[in-house]
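[step 3/7] fold_predict: job queued, chain A
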Amino acid sequence: MATTFRYPKLSIVALFFLVLPLCLSCPDECNCYQTLFMVACPHQNLKEFPVNIPNDTLYLNLDFNQLTTLSKQTFLYITHLKSLWISYNSLSKLDDGFFDPLTSLQRLDLSYNHLGSISSNLFRPLKSLITLRLSDVQLQNIEQGAFESLSNLKALDLSNNMLQQISFNLLKPLQDLRFLNVADNEMYELDSEIVKSLKKLKRLQIHGNQWICSCQSMHKLHLWIKDNQEKVDALFLTCFDLLKPISKLSINDTNESFCKLATQSVPQQSVQEEEAPRQQKEEPNQEEEPHQHKEEEQKKKEQPSQQPSFRNHAERPNIMIWWFLMLVPATSLTFV
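[step 4/7] structure written:
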């Protein structure tokens, strides 16, 4: 004889009330949107990671707070996150293993913190990551292998940092990258092989750097930019020499002008402005020259001669006679 439950409805109701507190748990400082699986805690002056975040949260916003450190246990119970925003905080360091539970994370924004450097293992678990924003985090160094496992990454923002150089091997794993922003750093060169290897790249932002526009360091990149103008946001690159801007390099410049600009010590515009008046002085207008010549001849005719002109040596008076005539009155006055 099959067993039956007398109160099936009661069991379902009890189970509902047992699970309900887990679903409705929400930090006091946050707004939880259950239907969207989103928890939003921006502008709350949080100094510690909020507790009681629902386990099924997919989107977590912690922007504009005062978080300084986060432990490895932070995400142990919210492992389904797809998007995480922690920008505009005071994070100074993220230990290796910090993102280990977030294997499903697709979007990560760490902008406007104080990280300084990125270790080679920090992002290793984030194999599903699509967008990574590291803008204005005072980056000076990114260790080799930091992006090794980010083969699905499509957008990388490294703008407004202190990076001086990016190696070819650092970005080589990002074969699906569509957007790369390295604007407003301290970069002086960018290997053209980097952008050539990123076959799917659609947008490259490189303005606001201190490019040394020598034929050796930037010549190949300049050629790539000319062939891919629709991908680059900078119509002009500013060339620097000893941290001072010396010229503007247009993507339409020829190869010869590129190398000439690289050897200049002053901006090209100022050189042209200085040379223009000089050329005007050295090369007067041909139409005005005959007229000016006639005026000069007319002035010479009208001016009285300041010295006597003599046709030949016979017409010149004897200088000794002049001296004698000048001395006679003087001697006569002396003997009177």
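[step 5/7] annotate
Residues 8-24 form the longest helix (17 residues).
The mean pLDDT is 77.
exit 0
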